[in-house]
Amino acid sequence: NAGVTQTPKFQVLKTGQSMTLQCAQDMNHEYMSWYRQDPGMGLRLIHYSVGAGITDQGEVPNGYNVSRSTTEDFPLRLLSAAPSQTSVYFCASRPTGAALTIYFGEGSWLTVV
Amino acid sequence: GEDVEQSLFLSVREGDSSVINCTYTDSSSTYLYWYKQEPGAGLQLLTYIFSNMDMKQDQRLTVLLNKKDKHLSLRIADTQTGDSAIYFCAETRTGFQKLVFGTGTRLLVSP
């Protein structure tokens, strides 16, 4: 059982480049989300989805796009990377309504130079 | 996480008790959580408390909730070096659709 899988684990981008962070879960969870983690600021919600075809913005959505074409996948796209997007990104999933059982991926370390 | 606040750092000696504090702002939060993050890893759910409870004990962990002051604390008894990590409190909002995290407290346990 793979759980929540994120790729890549590490990435260096140049300012202005675009890229996609992949997130996949094999637990048939309806709810998926992306967070970014910065020192002294905890985890901040970027985007979330309550099911295939449905996405919504979190606290810090600017500069990021998401889509949810399948239940399993929830990619996060950086449209034009900026140094302010240097961070650690976490994907998470859970069944709808089950507030307790939230599963996190292992994180993706992104550096924008 | 700007609405959920924690102190950034706590240092204790092995065998002592650790108390990590958290203040939150949303009085309608139904669940409040404590997560642990070890270096280079994701977040692991440690424990949680329902908003209608004042206290919950789970082995070495004790969670206290003061709804009037919107204050949550995590007490770790007999702290071990393996407890060194970052601890996050979190609250649910918008009918469980959003999990809002605090800033995190880095716990350092020295021998």
What's the mean pLDDT score of chain A? 92
Query: Which class of secondary structure composition applies to the elements of chain A?
Result: mainly beta
Model regions low in confidence, pLDDT < 50 over at least 5 residues of chain B? none
Order of helices and strands of chain B: EEEEEEEEEEE
Largest sheet of chain A: 7 strands, mixed
Question: What is the count of DSSP helices of chain B, taking H or I runs of 4+ residues?
Answer: 0
Helix-strand pattern of chain A: EEEEEEEEEEE
Biggest sheet record of chain B: 6 strands, mixed
Could you explain how this protein is built, in words?
The complex is a heterodimer of chains A (113) and B (111). Helices cover 0% and strands 51% of the residues of chain A. Chain A contains no helices and 11 strands. Chain A has strands at residues 4-7, 10-13, 19-25, 31-38, 42-51, 54-57, 64-66, 76-78, 87-94, 103-104, 108-112. In chain A, the strands form 2 sheets. In chain A, strands 2, 4, 5, 6, 9, 10 and 11 form a 7-stranded mixed β-sheet that branches. Chain A has a 4-stranded antiparallel β-sheet with strand order 1-3-8-7, with no helix packed on it. Chain A starts with a strand and ends with a strand. In chain B, 0% of the residues lie in helices and 57% in strands. By secondary structure, chain B is mostly beta strands. In chain B, the strands form 2 sheets. In chain B, strands 2, 4, 5, 9, 10 and 11 form a 6-stranded mixed β-sheet that branches. A 5-stranded antiparallel β-sheet of chain B has the order 1-3-8-7-6, with no helix packed on it. Chain B has strands at residues 5-6, 9-13, 18-23, 31-37, 43-50, 55-58, 61-66, 71-76, 85-93, 98-101, 105-110. The model of chain B has no long low-confidence stretch (mean pLDDT 89). Chain B is globular. Chain B contains no helices and 11 strands. In chain B, strand 6 (55-58) and strand 7 form a beta hairpin. The chains are: A mainly beta (113), B mainly beta (111).
